[in-house]
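Quick one: sequence plus flavin-adenine dinucleotide SMILES, need structure tokens.
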Amino acid sequence: MDVSNLAFSIAIAVLCLPCTVFTEANFKVPREIASKFSRDPQILSLASTDYGHIVHETPSQVFEPSSVSDISSLIKFSNSLPTPFTIATRGKAHSILGQAQARRNGVVLNMTNLKGSLVSVSNCSGKSLNCYADVGGEVLWIDVLHATLERGLTPLSWTDYLYLSVGGTLSNAGISGQAFRFGPQISNVLQLDVVTGKGELVSCSRDKNSELFYGVLGGLGQFGVITRARIPLGPAPTRVKWLHLLYNNFNAFSRDQEHLISFSENKNTTAADYVEGMLLFNQPPLDLSFYPDSDHQRITSLVTQNGIIYIIELVKYYDSNSQVAKDVADLVKGLNFVPTFIFEKDASYEEFLNRVYAEELFLRSKGLWEVPHPWLNIWIPRSRISDFNEGVFNNIILKQNISSGISLIYPLNRNKWDDKMSPVTPEEDVFYAVSLLRATSSIDMVKKYESQNQQILEFCKGAGIKITEYLTGNKTQKQWMEHFGSKWKLFADRKAQFDPKRILSPGQGIFQ
Ligand SMILES: Cc1cc2nc3c(=O)[nH]c(=O)nc-3n(C[C@H](O)[C@H](O)[C@H](O)COP(=O)(O)OP(=O)(O)OC[C@H]3O[C@@H](n4cnc5c(N)ncnc54)[C@H](O)[C@@H]3O)c2cc1C
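Reply:
Sure thing.
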């Protein structure tokens, strides 16, 4: 046996611990990919964690592809075995609950090894409607931003944080304050290249291989590995006016948010370019970093008096010679925030989009980035958002004396989503995204947050509020079936069609 054959045998012995028959039969890992497997303890350790730092599953191997054809060979190899090994596609591993991890005997497919080489912007003029970028699935959105800004262009729909992979966010939905207007990132894709669970490289779009296209978008990595996405681009603005409006009345706050997102269709009216919202709870620490020091005292008093303050975060893009002051005045005219509690910043477009990175650097400096994140992300139908405010924000979070972390709340227009795609959303024209983003280095606190998350879910169930969990995990198959509801059959049929041996993305826990 030559040395490379020995390596193949060792690899397969580890890949397929229960499959001794194949080890004895000296089943060979295809020669062209044999050297791409790693069992380096450091690499295994990295692949067994994620941003959540709650779930840890050590894979048997990490696969480091150098090309799309390596990915195809890996998946075909697994398919060829009587007991195929699972393959967890790992983008930036900014999942919270092990969604990009593989269990024992599984392989983690490390997409970042492709090194984000591919961002190619089409040859078009900035004013044209036909501009797009072809982007590798492993590429980070921050790199898409930089590559497109060089041409005066930009994608239209974002996430709040840009150090996430294109394949990773397109496997979920990808939402931020632009989504009310342009839809989630999955609504902003023209074409995909996907290596399916059978190992076939397939190009797909709304018109070609559409079942795969719709399945993969928001498909939680279940049907294939996204290796390229074609993202439409528009002209990039240079600057933004970035506002915070403070409310002490939830109904006024949500009414104004819904008013602001209602302009998404009307081309003749000034529309906001970004609408989000957040809460300040009367619980330390109070993050007032957006506001001038001279206003901290009066904002703190407002929070102390009211218990909860709701903030609309509103952005208007502009270029140097635009009428932005008038546009901003038109946007805020008639809104019912607490008089004088309106704050405005001016920033470059890039500085605004990349705002969370500044927070990351700060949290890293305090040792608070690489810690457990017991997050809860849910979508709530508009008709029950007031009940949710009362039952969750007032009666659960405010009453429990644990720091609330960052709490986001903003409405989305459902007509910007495509129901043929995999995600399920609440069945109302408008639904709210609520994100409770917590970080703690204390195991005790992780338990408290997890218990609070559970209470919130139970409250919603008890009150008959039909929420949808986003970025969720750690579920039984029965719970996943409930999650997908009437879409479960379609989801399961697509799995049978594109990944019949249930190889891909085991960390989601849907089919394994
Ligand atoms: C700080 C922070 C801020 C965030 N902000 C937002 C936000 O504003 N809006 C929002 O919508 N989300 C947000 N998220 C969530 C984020 O979009 C998801 O966690 C996303 O999955 C992260 O991308 P990733 O590259 O890290 O994916 P990973 O964690 O690596 O993978 C996630 C899932 O996708 C699969 N997958 C990864 N790459 C591919 C691929 N190429 N092809 C097929 N499947 C693949 C994986 O197997 C896994 O199941 C945030 C997360 C963090 C940590």
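The pocket of flavin-adenine dinucleotide is lined by residues 50-51, 88-95, 99-100, 111, 137, 159-161, 164-165, 167-169, 171-176, 220-221, 225-226, 471, 505, 507-508 (CB under 6 Å). The chain has four domains: 3-113, 119-235, 240-353, 367-474.
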